[in-house]
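Our consortium's second objective concerns turning raw sequence data into structural hypotheses that experimental partners can test. To show how far this objective has progressed, the report includes one record in full. It was chosen at random from the queue rather than selected for favorable results. The single chain below, 266 residues long, was entered without modification.
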Amino acid sequence: MANYPSAPQDFTLSFLEHITNNFSDGVRIGSGGFGHVYWGIYRDEKIAVKKLYDQNPGFDDAAFKKEFNNSFQLHHPNIVRLVGYCYETREINMEVRPGDYQFVKRIVRILCYEYCQGGSLDNYINEKFRERDLDTRLKIIRGISEGLNYLHYGQAQHMYHMDLKPENILLDEKNMPKIADFGLSRFLAMTKTHITTSHTTGTLGYMPPEYFTGKKISNKFDVFSLGVIILEVLAVPLGYRKYDDMSPREFVEQKLERKATNDYLK
């Protein structure tokens, strides 16, 4: 068991700069539209340090606080654990006009999570995943399902992830999957279907048709995403190209037939 604190820690920027060698490229483990992710050592354990860009129109204070609040209250073996955070305002000297230097305030936003050395599941949804045996695949599928069940039913408030996809599922050294990235998650009543008026968010291919066309949100949203992920994990042994010309029905029937042949139901 990792030696992480029982509650998220309030890290100083100077401490996070120290453990990441001033956010050097040598410890960078990922990048995206939100910022960069680095690894550092805290309490003799690796942690993932997600440093958001200072100026990011798509990830402002409200988005940062939402992801923090959503992650803060989640405690499950199949949910990535929030270890700490940093929120500091700094004044930096910059040239605002030629020859005119001024001190400008910049907000530093950082979220620190448990480190999963296996990386994200999307790294294995390709030829490399051929090396994963059936038991490992089933373990991954079961873990994702249990983590999603916890989000939907394991708390006083029901949470929808809203962006479940291989890129947001991390694997530890034992191939234990952990659901991550709760920036789009929402707390909603499970018994109702909600209509959102906001712009469409999520990832094409993992959003159910009723949301993409009518912006309807229910607990079926994440279940649809999970179904796509399961098919992707099970389809890898034969590769994707074989299925390019198949209809969705043919694709599912082929997977179910293969499942029965290999005694998947044991």
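The partners drew two points from this record. The radius of gyration is 21 Å. The mean pLDDT is 79. Both points have been shared with the crystallography group to help prioritize constructs.
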